[in-house]
Amino acid sequence: MNKTKKTTSVRLDIADLQIDKAYQRHEYINKQVVKKIQNSFDELLIGVITVGKRQDGSMWVVDGQHRVLGAKAAGKKSLECVVFESRGAEHEATVFYELNTQRTGINCIAMYKALLTQGEESTVNIQQLLEKYGFAIGKKTGEFGAANTIRATYQNGVLPRVLHVIKESFGSGSERWKWMFGSSHFVQMLTVIYSRCGEDIDDDRMALVLARMQHVDYQRMASRFAGTTGNRAVKIAPEFIESVYNNGLRKNRITWER
How many CB atoms lie within 10 A of CB 137? Predict the structure, then answer.
């Protein structure tokens, strides 16, 4: 596949996003998936949509058709997108094929590094925050493989605090890192918590309870919501607050309104 140039991250109006039925699986749209996204819409968990911008300026969804349809059904007006310069439907079909046949964690990592190399503003800001706390995007121990999750945390304005508590509780290369960060929903959970009730969270206490938390305890809690589509972290978050963060607290307990 020829290299795709000038990738940018931008927020686009859903009304401007088109779907090319020539290569998209339009006849195979899973209406149940679209309905679940609509009913439990959370942009934190949607991630970014891959869009090809053609020479005439039109925007075509290459990856994220179900998410776009679900967001539209939920009444949302815009979504965060990664846009590349498209040479037309054939080029987009090639990108679509590559994304859907070689989809591994490296895709979002490679996209992140491409945006960083290009100097895309939000990616540069994310990189500076990661470096400040001794982290990086990658696949090694002590690195975040879920680049899109980190981007969503940044977009929610809570990345510095999330990185701080992770640094304080896990360090940047401990063995505990491997099991806690093997699933992106852990960072998503922290992002949900800080986005919703960050003003009431004591970062020192958060770091302490995370440092004390055992792998099996978190896995047991998370397993209750295994198979949940689109909102697993949202469901884990109140369980974590009520059974872990609030445990032993008499004052300054967090009340999570479900």
Answer: 21
pLDDT tens sequence across 22-77: 666 555 577 888 888 888 887 777 878 999 999 999 999 988 888 999 999 999 99
Q: Distance of alpha carbon 184 from its chain centroid, rounded?
A: 8
For tokens 């997108």, the residue is 81
pTM of the model: 0.61
Q: How far is CA 59 from CA 49, 69, 101, 133, 147, in A?
A: 11, 15, 23, 37, 24
Query: Distances in Å between the alpha carbon of 133 and those of 91, 128, 215?
Result: 39, 9, 23
Q: Name 182's Cβ contacts closer than 8 Å, sequence gap at least 6.
A: none
Contact between 151 and 48 (Cβ < 8 Å): yes
d(CA 142, CA 130): 11
Question: Rounded to an integer, what distance in angstroms lies between the CA atom of residue 246 and that of residue 78?
Answer: 36
